[in-house]
Amino acid sequence: MTKSPRPREYWNALKTKLNQEGSELSQKVGQLKLKSSDGKNYLTDVADIESILRLIQSIPSPKAEPFKLWFAKVGYERIEETEDPELAFDRAMKTYLQKGYSREWINQRLKSIEVRKELTDEWQEREMKEGIKYTILINEITMTWANRNVKDYKKYKGLKKENLCDNMTNLELVLNMLVETATMEISKKQKPKGLEKNKEVARRGGSAAKRAKLEIEKQTG
Fold first, then answer.
1. What is the DSSP secondary-structure string of 50-88?
2. Cβ-contact 126, 192 below 8 angstroms
3. Is 59 in contact with 1 (CB distance < 8 Å)?
4. Which residue, 138, 82, 131, 151, is CA-closest to 112?
5. Rounded to two decimals, what is the model's pTM?
6. pLDDT tens-digit profile of 37-94?
7. At 214, which helix (H) or strand (E)?
């Protein structure tokens, strides 16, 4: 991207420049042993995607300009979505259509996003913090109705980093929405306190969808 004849020197100078500007990017850069062109492994600077995108913004090169324009476009869209959240759904619809999903499936998926948000809002009311506790509760729900935790469910579908819900069928999405809606309604009524009580509610919500799933399997063979 920079076409520098001395990339190492360029990189060191860029890190110095960022430090002088008060950027904390260099603190987020780690090192891993990566294979070089000579076949040997050397300690190499690495960073996560967010840090790399921030780095690109500081590269004074014509080749970086398309990325910078894209950053500006995405930033503007996020500001628009803050003022009008419906735009986020419109853009999601266009993205899914471009990926080849049917409109019927997309409508289900967008509804499932809305349901998940309502559930996580309820968990916040129950003082369940976003992150590991959400993961635990989602696992409880999934394990109850699908007999698999999220990790095993993704493995079953041959997924790695892909979103599980983006790879569900219409029926799976409906069952998943049922379990999350049931969990939310039970939680609102029971007002559980603490992780264990919320896990118990998640299992009760999961049981509702499991019964529906078993009945559908019985009727369809």
1. HHHHHHHHT---GGGHHHHHHHHHHHHHHHHHHH-THHH
2. yes
3. yes
4. 138
5. 0.71
6. 888 898 888 888 888 888 888 888 888 899 899 989 989 988 988 888 888 888 889 9
7. helix 195-220
